[in-house]
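Anyone? Bumping this.
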Amino acid sequence: MLAVRDLACARSGVPVLERVNFEVSSGEVLILRGPNGVGKTTLLRTLAGLQSALAGEIDLPEGESAYASHADGVKAALTVTENLMFWAKVYQRPFDPAVLHAFDLTELADRAAGTLSAGQKRRLGLARLGVIGRRVLFLDEPTVSLDGFSVRMFADWLRNTHLATGGCAVIATHIDLGLDAPELDLTPFKAAWDATGGSDEAFL
Amino acid sequence: MIALLRRDLQLAVRAGGGFGLGLAFFLIVIVLVPFGVGPEQAVLARIAPGILWVAALLSALLSLDRIFALDSEDGSLALLATAPIPLEGVAVVKAAAHWITSGLPLVLAAPVLGAMLSLPPPAYGTLLLSLLVGTPALSMIGTFGAALTVGLRRGGLLLSLLVLPLYVPTLIFGAEAVRRAADGLPATAPLILTAAISAGTFALMPFAAAAGLRVNLR
């Protein structure tokens, strides 16, 4: 479903990763590993189309991908339901209240998102993924500030709802999600320092 | 896109500061002018069109940096950029929401404030009309400026420097229309030109704003 060939990507004009190759088929998860600063976020942002690749190809079905960053994109002045309804409308999907249950938000449904704790906010941010119904997910540290129970709940949703209905995901994380998934360590793909390439952007 | 517009208006109403702030600023500037230049009616009537328009520019400027900054801080901008709405559409919606929250109240309040500056009564209709067709350009140009400076810390000042020169044509024709009406001359030509500037900015600026956003999201 998702195939990446010889991908090279840059952060602020400096190449960080090169010759990245992997494939993820429907129903599969790929876990990205690597020390801080190796380029996990950069790779995910490139895959999501927020920045362009320096080289290589990204092969994925049009209009099927979604991205979730460190930040949740939650509006403090709106209630939990309103936040989710907004994304449902943007993606022109019906809003299914079952997603509230899947992320244990039922009791919080009418609370203003600004009054939620960091972990609850994170759950709301993740529930957006259940609302928008995209099949290819690029998740950047989805479990930050979640407790152990919530992490298992998220992993269950991923396994039983998302992957079971033919979705796939690329996840950058430092913890064990409890998913039986292949891991890709990005350290070997670190771009070599190159005094001539990649720096022209600074002069444009 | 309608969902985004509705959300932005909802946020402006709930978070406060959206509707009231620009309007209150407009009000205070206009109220201060007679204190500065003296209560002489002939002088006030002469400068009223220009003052009203300059005050409208400044109060539009006041809330510009919030257009994208809030969405950028909480991460929704990156999520919107990957959503099935084109960024150009996001820019138009943001400009529209800004106009409804800051431009429209000005338009409605302007005749009352015109009276405070002893603007001649025949000019009230033209004042309303010129602000109605002119302030959308202020919001759209401002959205472009906000898109350019979204990633910057303390980008508000830079934003003003970028945007104010671009407001000059709107100011010239908008104020000219009111001045002509106040002098009893036909004001159709400057009104049409003001409207043309608004239409032109809405046709072109969304693309520039979207390009700015893409660069800043990279």
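Late reply, but here is one note on the structure posted above: Residues 64 and 78 of chain B are 19 Å apart (CA to CA).
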